[in-house]
Write a structure and sequence with these properties.
The chain has 1 helix and 3 strands. It is α+β, with helices and mostly antiparallel strands. The chain is globular.
Amino acid sequence: MEHEMRAEYEEGVLPHEDTPVKIWHMVRLDGTTAMCGRPLAPAAATQAADVWGTPKAEPFCHTCGAMYLREHPQDTG
C-alpha cells in the first residue's frame, strides 16, 4: 500500500505554503485521514513517505509511525 505524509496545523489555521506545521502524520496515498484516525485538511502540505525518519519529517505523530511500521517493517532503515 502506498503512503504519504500530510501536515496538521494549529487549530483554526488554514493550510498555506508558509504555514508552520504542527505535526506530520502518515496517510494512505491521497487520503485525508491519518493512520492514527485524525482528520486532516485536504489542502494540507504533503511529503513523500521516503522522508519519514528524517529531520524534514519532524515532528512526527508517534501513533502514525507505529502503524506505518506495522504495514512497512522493511522501512526501518
